[in-house]
């Protein structure tokens, strides 16, 4: 019989939302209600779904949410103007421009235009820099949510070998930095890594952020490892993570399921970032 702990992201997210809801309520009584504005450009169906989750989550905790839908044909200058307007609107604490943007718009330019202290995605170079230097600033929601899971399940990070598969700006790179900040020994693996298994077999904490269904199999995992699955892969066989759950679960000490693991924590962390942005700017 397996003793593997299932790291229940839905449960942790619910706890976190309850805590956020309390603080938002207190702030609202003082006349300050945190506000998140999401800009959605075009009609990408996946983006529409993600944005609707974000709006519902804001409602649950009492954060004001505002959605600005712009046509796919909007030019870069107009979009930057919209961001500038939100930068100056005192009632807007968080600005989130849903990605991907249409090809003719430079994503980096848009992200760089968002005020760093309203950048609740944690994508602005100032926030990335702060994370690198001392762990301050607003942080990317998915890796921050993963850290929250590790903390709430009292999984020790210090001195552990943490291996991350994936080097994206949104997950892999900030994840490495957060684990390093808490004194893990960190390895980042990617598509050009030679002998991936040699690295993953040394992992006490293994984070899979590859974007390939069931990429991590039991033979790649050390017995007793903590497995964090960031994957959301829609396949003919349904929604699958980056980890082959059934097999890997037998070897792991703890594992996040898909769905119900990392996903809910990403949204809860967005709420936390919005609250943090509000408190730091006008709390
Ligand atoms: N598109 C997919 N994930 C994200 C995210 O975390 N933030 C933004 N802004 N867009 C996304």
Keywords:
single chain, 283 residues, alpha/beta, Rossmann fold, 2 domains, six-stranded parallel beta sheet, three-stranded parallel beta sheet, 10 helices, 16% strand, globular, binds guanine, EC 3.5.4.9, oxidoreductase
Output the radius of gyration.
Answer: 19 Å
Whole-number count of domains: 2
DSSP helical segment count: 10
Q: What's the N-to-C terminus distance?
A: 50 Å
Give me the CATH superfamily of the largest domain: NAD(P)-binding Rossmann-like Domain
CATH architecture of the largest domain: 3-Layer(aba) Sandwich
**What proportion of the residues form beta strands (DSSP E)?**
15-25%
Uncertain runs: none
The percent of residues in helical segments reads 40-55%
Indicate the structural class: alpha/beta
Overall outline? globular
From N to C, what is the helix and strand string? EHEHEHEHHHEHEHEEEEHEH
Write down how many β-strands occur, each being a DSSP E stretch of 2 or more residues.
11
CATH fold title of the largest domain: Rossmann fold
Global mean pLDDT: 97
For the largest beta-sheet, the strand count, sense and barrel status come to: 6 strands, parallel
Strand order of the largest sheet: 1-11-8-7-5-6
What is the C-level CATH assignment of the largest domain?
A: Alpha Beta
């Amino acid at each position: 019989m397996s003793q593997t702990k299932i790291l229940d992201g839905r449960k942790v997210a619910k706890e976190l939302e309850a805590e956020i809801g309390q603080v938002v309520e207190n702030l609202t009584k003082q006349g300050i209600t945190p506000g998140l504005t999401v800009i959605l450009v075009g009609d990408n169906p996946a983006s529409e779904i993600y944005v609707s989750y974000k709006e519902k989550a804001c409602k649950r905790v009492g954060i004001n949410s505002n959605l600005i839908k712009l046509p796919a044909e909007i030019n870069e200058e107009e979009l930057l103007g919209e961001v500038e307007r939100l930068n100056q609107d005192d009632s807007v604490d968080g600005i989130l421009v849903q990605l991907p943007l249409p090809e003719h718009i430079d994503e980096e330019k848009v992200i760089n235009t968002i005020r760093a202290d309203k950048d609740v995605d944690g994508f602005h170079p100032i926030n990335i820099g702060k994370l690198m230097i001392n762990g301050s600033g607003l942080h990317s929601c998915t890796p921050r949510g993963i850290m929250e899971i590790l903390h709430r399940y009292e999984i020790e990070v210090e001195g552990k070998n943490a291996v991350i598969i994936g080097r994206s700006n949104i997950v892999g790179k900030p994840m490495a930095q957060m684990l390093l900040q808490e004194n893990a020994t960190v390895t980042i693996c990617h598509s050009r890594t030679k002998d991936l298994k040699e690295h993953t077999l040394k992992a006490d904490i293994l984070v899979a952020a590859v974007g390939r269904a069931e990429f991590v199999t039991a033979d790649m995992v050390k017995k007793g490892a903590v497995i964090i699955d960031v994957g959301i892969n829609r396949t003919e066989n349904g929604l699958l993570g980056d980890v082959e759950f059934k097999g890997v679960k037998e070897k792991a000490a703890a594992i996040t399921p898909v769905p119900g693991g990392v996903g809910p924590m990403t949204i809860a962390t967005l709420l936390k970032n919005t609250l943090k942005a509000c408190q730091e700017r006008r709390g």
